[in-house]
Structures are given as structure tokens and as C-alpha cells.
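Appendix B, record 7
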Amino acid sequence: MSKMKLDEIDHQILDILIDNMRTPFTDIAKKLLISAGTVHVRVKKMEDSGIIKGSSLTLDYKKLGYSFIAYIGIYLEKTHQTKYVLERLSEIPNVTVAHITTGKFNIYCKVRAKSTEHAKEIIFTIDDIDGVLRTETMISLEESINDKKRLMHTIFHEL
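C-alpha cells (predicted):
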């Protein structure tokens, strides 16, 4: 698939949608002084090319009682067990992100929990997966940066 060229209007549409994916196309059109049909066509092209993949909902996990975040590095007994362990991790709903990594860990994942005790249960569940040699856990004290827009603007300037 060839790389889609984005112009300034595409950048502005994405900028608005990153702030709020639920912004109506008519509101975007009014702000950018273009037609809602133009916004629709451009968003559709970005979806078809894979630049936009679905839409996401941002939850306030603290308000839902899941304020505890831990990052868990997983050491495997053998690297060929990676796929199996990832399949088991995907069955644990509190594992929200998992990466195959190089370096110290074979897999690195993010876990959300209600409390230290709850996190301990999740970590023990991960430790019990066949193929997991051991884990190393780091507790997040605070999420200080979570900003998609800065990277998006950097990418736009490179295009």
C-alpha cells in the first residue's frame, strides 16, 4: 500500500478529531470553512488508507476504581513460547497493553488494577502462565505525559 499524502486540511481534520473523535463533521466543516461532504470524503480516504483506525473512547480509570498501574517485564523460559504466553495474557482483562521486546524482557505489559492487593493477584496469575520464568514489576506513581498531539504534529512537519 502506498503512503497517502496528507495536506494541511487533512492535518487540521486530524487535529480536531484527536481532541475529540466525536466532533460532528458539520462542526469540523464550519471551523475549517469547508463542506461537511469534504470532511466526510477526506476522513473516509484516511480510514481506507489505514491512517485512521477506528475510533477510541478514553475512560477515566481512577473514577472507575482502577487507579493502580503497573508495568510488568516478563522473562520467558524459551522464546518460542512468546505466542502462547501472549494468548494467555490476552485472556486477562487487566492486561491492557503487551509488547514483544528486545533486551531485558521478552514481553513487557501494562496492567490496571484496583489496588496493590488486586495487582498482586494479577501478577501471580501472570507468573502462573506456562512458559513464564519470572516477572519484574514496576509501579506507576503517576502518568505524567500522555499526549498524542505532539507526535502527530511532529509527523506532519516531516511530511
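Remarks on this record: The mean pLDDT is 91. The domain at 8-57 is CATH 1.10.10.10 (Arc Repressor Mutant, subunit A).
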